[in-house]
Amino acid sequence: MYKTIPGTYRSGVVQLTEPPPDLPEGPVLVTFLNIEASQANAPALEPEQIAELRGKLAAWEADWNAPGMEVYDKP
Q1: Are 5 and 16 in contact (CB under 8 A)?
Q2: How confident is the prediction along the chain (75 residues), in pLDDT tens digits per residue?
Q3: pTM for the predicted model, two decimal places
Q4: Beta bridge partners of 8
Q5: Which of 54, 56, 7, 50 is nearest to 28 (CA)?
Q6: Cβ atoms 28, 43 nearer than 8 A
Q7: What beta strand segments (E) does the chain contain?
């Protein structure tokens, strides 16, 4: 099983944001990402991109909110 869980590395310790499911201990692979501190908390999309995406998705809003569509919300 492979599961990606984000975390933070500080002073030689990796701290995960959540415990791995059904795995009390075992081997792991750690990949270090070179992200500048200024980018770490930056939004994934700029406001203009969000507005454009919202406009594109608006055409599906009526279908998305139609009766019976809640069945797709269930895992």
Answers
A1: yes
A2: 677 888 888 898 888 888 888 877 878 888 887 776 556 666 778 889 999 999 999 988 889 889 999 888 877
A3: 0.38
A4: 15
A5: 7
A6: no
A7: 7-10, 13-16
